[in-house]
Amino acid sequence: MKSEQTRDLIRTTALRSFREQGFDATTMRSIASQSGVSLGNAYYYFPTKNHLVQELYLEVQQAHRAAAEPALAAASDLTERLGVVFRTGLAQLAPFRDYASGFLTAMVAADSPLNPMSPESAPAREIVVGLFRDALAGARRALPVEFEARMPHALWLAYLLLCLYWSYDRSPGQRSTQRLLDQGLALLKAALPLLRTPVLRAPLRRLLDLVGELGA
Amino acid sequence: MKSEQTRDLIRTTALRSFREQGFDATTMRSIASQSGVSLGNAYYYFPTKNHLVQELYLEVQQAHRAAAEPALAAASDLTERLGVVFRTGLAQLAPFRDYASGFLTAMVAADSPLNPMSPESAPAREIVVGLFRDALAGARRALPVEFEARMPHALWLAYLLLCLYWSYDRSPGQRSTQRLLDQGLALLKAALPLLRTPVLRAPLRRLLDLVGELGA
DNA sequence: CCTAGTTTTTGAACATGTTCAAAACGACGA
DNA sequence: TCGTCGTTTTGAACATGTTCAAAAACTAGG
């Protein structure tokens, strides 16, 4: 009970090291020794290295929300508001660009707690899904009603894909990712009126239902 | 020179084990001992465990082509032809469903030879991109000309995303993936006429250009 | 048939994530 | 103060991917 301190010490050391050295170079042994603690002790508090990354993951999403909410207040156009959420999210990831590969590897396994769709990631996931919900809710012109329920979740998935692109983007300053986002939003804006035609609306709704099964 | 046999023995043993036991359970030591060879010897022929998976990867894509080409000959509608390529591809992956996670993990790292976008994966990649090129070329009604160059590559990426969905799909028999594909093709079919309107064509072309940067 | 050089093969070693039995510690009732 | 029980901490151990120096097998050239 007392030594909640130890847990926090390990957590803090690990998160600093993740930021400064990346996932691979941050070794459980280095975390332990930098914390002045034995290797086994780190495992007493965190069952897995991935569980330590989870803490980082949550911290990043919280920073995302802190950055997005004020910026959202200043935008009223739908695609503009979505752009805010996407862009502030990418901004949080920027420091990790060099180590993206290592983190990505730990995140894709279906049974990893780090998988964005895992139950363990639910708190972090809810933050971002919530941001997209807010972005939609506060927009001047709303979406067709039948999309509103599924859309935040689908946008979150789109955000994950954008992050995937970002992690592979080798253009200087990840300019390509920025442009992909801009062009994607432009396409959405142009396509928005067409979504009201029944021809597109029906298959699109079914598509959203299926996509929604991920991380439900 | 002579002992090309050894290389083949190791390769064969490894591929069989990958199919039967999956990626994680197939250990470099088990490959070596089942081949009646020392651990170090396996590394003499394959610099990395991932390089062994690469052999499997290529074999799977070749089977994909072998399954797709005859089926393509019987279809003339564009979306139908695309469906053939998608479906025959998924069929090759079915045996690996239980181990998808392990393979996926090895594939996402940007610097892994197993990454579908890596230069090492080029031969396997070209097979599938080529299938999509054929599917487009033989269709009754063609796409707008300006899309033709980028489209096969973009479809290959869409195929990768479908595989990603498939690997997370926990529905019995991966029915959800089947339906996602069906609905996606239905949406494409419905949207196809709209792609000729300049309002959509311009941002879509720019999007395709950016997407094309992956694995180029 | 010997020797020198090249190709193959081996086995030990290392780093890392993870597990676990045992030791150290700490609080608390007798 | 002592002993006991639960919590914390430790260090050794294991499996795995990978590296490497040295041994073995092989191939020519004389």
Task: Please write out the topology.
The structure is a homodimer of 216-residue chains.
Chain A (H helix, E strand, L loop, with lengths): L3 H22 L2 H7 L4 H7 L3 H25 L4 H16 L6 H9 L13 H16 L7 H4 L2 H18 L6 H17 L6 H14 L5
Chain A binds a DNA duplex (30 and 30 nucleotides) through helix 3.
Q: How is this structure best described in words?
A:
The structure is a homodimer of 216-residue chains. Chain A has 216 residues and is an all-alpha fold. Chain A has two domains: 1-47, Orthogonal Bundle (Arc Repressor Mutant, subunit A), CATH 1.10.10; 50-215, Tetracycline Repressor, domain 2, CATH 1.10.357. Chain A is 72% helix and 0% strand. Chain A has eleven helices and no strands. The radius of gyration of chain A is 19 Å and the shape is elongated. The two termini of chain A are 34 Å apart. The mean pLDDT of chain A is 94. The interface between A and B is large, with 36 and 36 residues. Chain A binds a DNA duplex (30 and 30 nucleotides) through residues 1-3, 6, 27-29, 37-41, 43-44, 47-49. Chains A, B: Keywords: DNA-binding, Transcription, Transcription regulation. Chains A, B: This is TetR family transcriptional regulator. Chains A, B: Residues 27-46 bind DNA. Chains A, B: Residues 4-64 form the HTH tetR-type domain.
Key structural traits:
homodimer; mainly alpha; Arc Repressor Mutant, subunit A; 2 domains; 0% strand; DNA-binding; transcription regulation (chains A, B)
Question: Overall mean pLDDT score of chain A?
Answer: 94
| Terminal Cα span of chain A | 34 Å
Strand content of chain A: under 5%
Quote the CATH topology of the largest domain in chain A.
Answer: Tetracycline Repressor, domain 2
Uncertain segments of chain A of ≥5 residues (pLDDT<50)? none
The CATH architecture of the largest domain in chain A would be Orthogonal Bundle
Number of helices of chain A: 11
Note the main sheet of chain A.
none
